[in-house]
Amino acid sequence: MAQKLKDTILNPILKGNPITVLVLGICSSLAVTVQLKGAIVMALSVTIVTALSSLVCSLLRNTIPNRVRIIVQLVVVALMVILVDQILKAGEGTYAIDKQLSVYIGLIITNCIVMGRIEAFALGNKPVPSFLDGLANGIGYGLILIVVAFFRELLGSGTLLGFQVLPASYVPNNLVILPPFALILLGCIIWVHRACDKDLQEK
Amino acid sequence: MNTNSNVYTVIYTTIVVVIVAAVLAFVSLKLGPAQQANAKAETLRQMMAAAQVASTDELYASNNDAVLTMYADNIQDAYTINLKGEKVADLGITKDNIELISNLKPQDKAIKAGADATLPVYVFKSGVSVIPVYGAGLWGPIWGYIAFNDDCQTIAGAYFDHESETPGLGAKIKDEPWFREKFAGKKVAFGTDRLFSLAKNAEATGADNAVDAITGATMTSKGLNEALNVWFKAYEPHISVAAFLAGIADENSNAEEE
């Protein structure tokens, strides 16, 4: 049991990472990784949304009519996303970040990781493992987001979390700011991940 | 229990939707005031950045209360006008009465339709008057605040913002201080066909009312150019009256000197 729980938590972060292995949630990882601050808020938001929606859907799993289960899941996910968005808008410190992330907070609804985990895991498992599975998938997604954002902000603006890190003589690279570079960076991360983990390599 | 029957499905989905709606309504009600306060402080920050009340960095480092106090300390008069340039209503200078950024969109539509628009004017104690501009960028709305000196023609300062312009290209209208700083000292050519020109190589013509467009952000620049011209045009009747009055005041003071 303990081993199974450990797998539930560690698998999405390492061997089954939603971005680098399952290649889900790519869209937002290209869009909101220009600055580290935005990426961190996005990572937290997605983690909260996946964890809570998995928990709620798992609690409801025996009552949901099979024919409308996707719709019910969608309503639950939408509820969580709107709650997160409203709370971000209400916080004095988070308002500016919410404005910067603009539509991408709302678009968490369409993030395949959220629905994917509910369909694949939460509907067939008890609430606690489902909650942890959602949490771990969110963290796995968030980690990659933060790594990508770290390099993009460092090379694209010469700053980290808004503080100047590289010397002023550094000319910010505009390509790094544009989404294609995030895809290149993501490719590199997948490459490193596969090189380190022999199980992921195809024969 | 048969969870696949039609009756069950209909009742189940109805209950779920009602519960979700109730939760959302409750949260929206509870968080509404805090969100409103944030939106108001944001509007004031941008307005005061244009009016040069404080530096942009300082405004964004201040919390909401400090921003409200700063506004109360610096504002002299705030009112709305219609498209004929007549004063419609006093907004009052209490901090509760400002037109939020979200209110600019319906006004923009009203201007373009020639319908009844109520356009805000904010007069600061330093003598500058701030007006908003609003339009469409490449991906979403763009807006800004333009501060005029008391000659009602020379721009004292400007601040621009956008919802979703491309980072590093169109987003420069907000992110790069040099862009908004270029507007200071420019003169809007009220009374002519071309009020303001934000275009490629516009500065090379040496005109007073021209600022270069941003390289790589053609659509954002075009949108901003349109926003500036549409809104300046809408304010033209009011501003020309104000300029006339300012001219009389000047002549009077000159006469006194003689």
Describe the 3D structure.
The complex is a heterodimer of chains A (203) and B (258). Chain A has 203 residues and is mainly alpha-helical. Chain A contains ten helices and two strands. In chain A, helix 8 packs across helix 10. Chain A is globular. The mean pLDDT of chain A is 88. Chain B has 258 residues and is of the alpha+beta class. Chain B is 47% helix and 18% strand. In chain B, the strands form two sheets. Chain B has a six-stranded antiparallel beta sheet with strand order 2-1-3-4-5-6, sandwiched between helices. Chain B has a two-stranded parallel sheet with strand order 7-8. In chain B, a hairpin with a 6-residue loop joins strand 5 and strand 6. In chain B, helix 1 crosses helix 3. In chain B, 33% of the residues are buried. Chains A and B meet through helix 4 and helix 5 of A and helix 1 of B.
Largest sheet of chain A: 2 strands, antiparallel
Q: What's the rounded overall pLDDT mean of chain A?
A: 88
- Put simply, the count of helices of chain B is 7
Question: Percent of residues of chain B in helical segments?
Answer: 40-55%
Largest interface (C-beta under 8 Å): A-B, 31 and 29 residues
Helix and strand pattern of chain B = HHHEEHEEEEHHEEH
Rg on CA atoms of chain B, Å: 22 Å
Rg of chain A (C-alpha, Å) = 18 Å
Physical arrangement of strands within the biggest beta sheet of chain A: 1-2
Largest sheet of chain B: 6 strands, antiparallel
Number of strand elements of chain A: 2
Based on the model shown, name its key terms.
heterodimer, A: 203 residues, mainly alpha, two-stranded antiparallel ribbon, 10 helices, B: 258 residues, alpha+beta, 7 helices
